[in-house]
Every structure is written in structure tokens, then in C-alpha cells.
Amino acid sequence: MALNFTINTSNPPLGALLAAEHVKGSVQVSVEEGKDTRLHVSDAIQFNDANSISRYLARVAPSLGLYGANMMEQTEVDHWLEFSARRLCGQPGLTVALGELDKALSLRTFLVGHAITLADLSVWAALKGHKEWPNQGKSFSHVNRWFSFLSSQVPFSSVENKYTTKKA
Amino acid sequence: MPMYQVKPICGAHAETDLPTCMYKLPNIHAQKGNSCTPEHALQNGEVDPAVKALEARQDEIMRKLHELKAAVEGLAKTVTTPDADLDLTVSSSLSESASSTTFKGVTDLDNVLGKDLGALRDIVINANPAQPPLSLLVLHSLLCQRYRVLSTVHVHSSVSGVPPQLLSCLGPRHADSYARHMFQLGFTLIWKDVPKLQMKFSVQNMCPIEGEANVARFLFKLLAPYPSDPALATMVDSWVDTAFFQLAEGSTKERSTVLRALNSALGRNPWLAGQEFSLADIACYCCVLQSGSASAAPANVQRWIKSCENLGHFSPAKLLLQ
Asked: Could you please report the per-residue DSSP string of chain A?
């Protein structure tokens, strides 16, 4: 069963694209360019927002552990999904949100647990797409460390090369 | 230099009664004679009273150690399983209705939350009294049907003048609230001036969780597992997001779009996520109620609101809105 993932090229959902890139070994996802973002699962079910798409992709490939290893990690992932969509994408208050993120990352390599999860994908994508982030980056050392650590890894760098250049 | 010789102290050939069950060996001390000292005599026959006292003392110490070990094991048992030897007396006095059949697929707290470490699992929620979290109150009353929950309400110093119905929203104070070990879950609601609802649980491992939607997901997973089908589970999450961000916080236009989407989903299925009542229904119901758009809702939504109310889970939310 191949999943049909259409993306809006003027505003690509980086987080969902990263999730698709991570699960492509276990699930077939075909990415097409179109007008709006949509994941077609079946005729009755399709998801339109980036968080739902990421959640679905993480759930069809449970062995990757993108949704956390237990219920408490799942809840943390949910927290960061909302954080990236509500706190990092809204323009005002970025500094406060980054301060909270910095505090959370001070003792951690990944946002949740000890491996990559949707939390890392969505927060990284939100920062990547944020105009203010490159200027703010210097003052938040932990976020900066975590951000460049992820940016250097393959799924992140390939998504970055494929989709962010088009946006500019 | 030759050594001088000592004459034997006792007679050269003292007769001793040897046991007959043993074979005989030649006497290697024959030359020196049978030099039996008083100590040997005591060891072979009568036991020295000092040794006897020492033995008695050691027995006493061992007995005390065993007692101590038993006491520590008993304590460890009550610490790791808070209700280990209290179950019989407690369950009758708490009159739990554990046979709640609302949700299929019974979840066990140890399975979902990991091993019990002895302390009460306390869910602490900071909520702003300006936006009472209706969905969490509904989930709280469902949790109370399933588990022994110790519920408490506090008012943080950052807010003043909290209405009385918010102070009593978790029901009357439990008569056994002094005995925390008798409960499986703690539910502590703190009215506090926070921009966004927060939950703190297991703070060593978890970051504080923000947002009513995420706390609701967490509490619901204590009641019933999410659908195992990835599409259905994601649909539940998608409805929860829609409820809290578009119904509760959105503009009038967004709200009517959501009501239309609800109407068409409820035309296909009795509940939002198919055949089973789920968190999607709880979240959407509470947000429809809170946004005051229940009366202007389309037909399928009206019918669904009635079905929700028939379940009887929503009385805590309705009480607060009056």
C-alpha cells in the first residue's frame, strides 16, 4: 500500500516531510507537489495538518519508535508537537519559547528519551522554517548544539537540500 | 647446648578410658608421658561455662537479626505495594465501582506507567480559573470510576477569588485523604495564573506537559488504549487538536467550519472515531459546550450531543457551566 503525500510547495511541511523520510524504509510514501498539504490514506481518511500526518507516519512504522517508547514518552512527544505548531510558528514570543526549549535541552541529547522522535523532527522543522531563528540561535547554546547536531544527519540534510531552497 | 629435662608432672602411665568404637593409634606422646592439661579435660568432657555463655549470646544475636529481617521485608512490601495488606479493608470502605464497562481493553497502571515505586503517582495540573479545563474534569470522574483516586484542589497565591464551584469541582474531600498509600492515583488540581494549562507528572523523566489537549490524551490512555489502527488513532488525535484549537480558540468562521465537519463525520458514524466512543468525542463535546455553539449546531451534531449526555459522563462539565 503506497501512501500518497501531497505537499504545498510554497510552504512545505518540513516536519511531516522529515517523518516521511524516516519511515520510507518501512512504508512506501510517494511525495507529490501540489497546492495544499494532504496525506491520502484511503478514500474515507485523509489528513491535512502536519502534526496529524507526522503522527500517522510514526504509527504505521512503530518499530522506528518515532512516537516514543512508552506512554510517558508519547505524552512528551504530544507536548512538543503542540509546542512546535503553536509556540514556535506564531511570530510573537519566540524568545520565551526558545528559553523554555533551551532549558529542556540542557540535560538532553534528544528532546524525548534517548533517540530521535517526532518531537525532534517537528521542533527542528519549526525552527528551520522560522525567519527569526538564525539571529536568535547564538543566545541559546543548548538549542544551537541540538539543532546543528540534527542538521548534520542524513534525513535532515537531505530534506533541507530538497525543500528549503525552493521556498526562497 | 643440651636442654635440661623436666620430670613428668603426673604419673607416667595414667589410664584413660578410650572409646571402643574407634581404632587405636600408637601414642605419639609416649615418651613425654600423657600430658593432659586442665583445658583439654574441659573440652573433652564438661563445656567451659564461658563458651556456653558465648554460644547463647550468638544464638540471641541471630534471633534478633532474623526478627529484623522479617520486619524490613514487611516494610518493603507495604512500600512497594501500597495497598498490599490493606486491600480487604480498604476496598469495601471506598466503595469503588471497578466494574465500569464504559471502556473496553482494561489498562493496568503498572503496564502503562511502569513499575510502581512506592510513592503515590500524583498527577499535578496547573490550570487557569479563567479557562476551567472541562475535558479534564470529565476524564477525572471517569478515572475515579476505575481507580482509587486521591483528588485535591488548591489555589496558588498568583490568583485570588476563585469561585466556589471551581474549588469543589473534583467532588468532596475524601474521608481517607490522610492515608495516601491507600490510593492508586493522585489528582491534584492547582488553580494558578498560567498562560497555558500544565501537567507535571514523574518530573525526573518527563518535561512538564503543556496544553489541555495533551493532558487529556495522557489521562485517556490511563482509561483505555488508543485504537490499534494507525488511521483511527490519528483521527482521534486530529479531532482533539481541532476541538481545542479551532472550536475553543478559533473565530466564529472557523467554528462553523468545524461544526460542518463534525456534522458530516457524525452522518457516517455514531461517534467521531467510528463505532466506539473515544477521546475525540469527549474533547469535541466539551469544546462545543464551552464555545456555546451547542444550540446552533446542525442535526447530526445535536443527535450526537444527546448521545453523549446519555452516557452520563459529562455531569462534572455541565455543573461548571451553570
From this structure: -EEEEEEETTS--HHHHHHHHHHTTTSEEEEEEESS-EEE-SSS-EE-SHHHHHHHHHHH-GGG-TT-SSHHHHHHHHHHHHIIIIISSSSTTHHHHHHHHHHHHTT-SSSSTTS--HHHHHHHHHHHT-SSHHHHGGG-HHHHHHHHHHHTSHHHHHHIIIIIHHH-
Q: Please check whether residue B197 lies inside any domain of the structure.
A: yes
Cβ neighbours of B210 in A, within 8 Å: 79, 82-83
Q: Residues B166, B238: one domain?
A: no
| B97, pLDDT greater than 70 | no
Judged by a CB distance cut-off of 8 A, whether residue B181 touches chain A is: no
| ipTM score | 0.93
- With CB atoms and an 8 Å threshold, state whether A52 touches B241: yes
Please report residues of A whose CB lies closer than 8 A to that of B205.
Answer: 72
pTM score, two decimals?
Answer: 0.77
User: Which residue from B214, B238, B268 is facing A82, i.e. has the nearest CB?
Assistant: B214
Please write the tens of the pLDDT for every residue from B159-204: 998 998 899 888 877 777 677 778 888 999 999 999 999 999 988 8
- Residue B47 domain flag: no
